[in-house]
Specification:
The chain is mainly β. The chain has one domain: OB fold (Dihydrolipoamide Acetyltransferase, E2P). Helix content is 12%, strand content 40%. The protein is built from two helices and six strands. The chain has a five-stranded mixed barrel with strand order 1-3-4-6-5. β2 and β3 form a beta hairpin. It is globular.
Length: 144
């Protein structure tokens, strides 16, 4: 079984290309996924300048690739479901390069808008304009 699910933030804007001859769109980006560390261990690693996240290369094909390029941006929280793929290629200098990446079958945009306050967890008075009976809920009053 080859299945992976990741949630993280984009480290750069997606790069969109089209395959010559077929015109198939392909988008690539990198996802920073936090390592499961205790608060103390995370602070210790940060103090030493060590990374507290893994940086995973993602490849998306087809219409979904165009959507990623159009709607995702650096820093956005994103979920990816897909499979791990390993491949090799010969670089221009003649050396053999090895690449491991996730080929995304599904990409879920977890944040929208120009800043991180515009995600699904935020609410404002304009969330339900013109609909009677709906009001924003104060998260502090929810018992769970």
């Amino acid at each position: 079984m080859n299945n992976v699910v990741l949630i993280g933030r984009l480290t750069r804007d997606p790069e969109l290309r089209y395959i010559p001859n077929t015109g198939t769109p392909v988008s690539t980006f990198s996802l920073a996924v936090d390592k499961p560390l205790s608060r103390e261990k995370k602070q210790e690693m940060e103090a030493k300048g060590q990374p507290t996240a893994d940086f995973i290369n993602i490849v998306v094909w087809g219409k979904q690739a165009e959507n990623c390029a159009n709607y995702l941006a650096k820093g956005r929280l994103t979920a990816v479901q897909g499979r791990i793929q390993s491949r090799t290629y010969d670089a221009k200098d003649g050396t053999r390069r090895y690449v491991t990446e996730v080929v995304a079958e599904r990409v879920q945009f977890l944040e929208w808008g120009d800043d991180s306050s515009s995600n699904f967890n935020s609410s404002s008075d304009s969330d339900f304009p013109g609909i009677d009976g709906f009001e924003p809920v104060d998260d502090d009053n929810i018992p769970f």
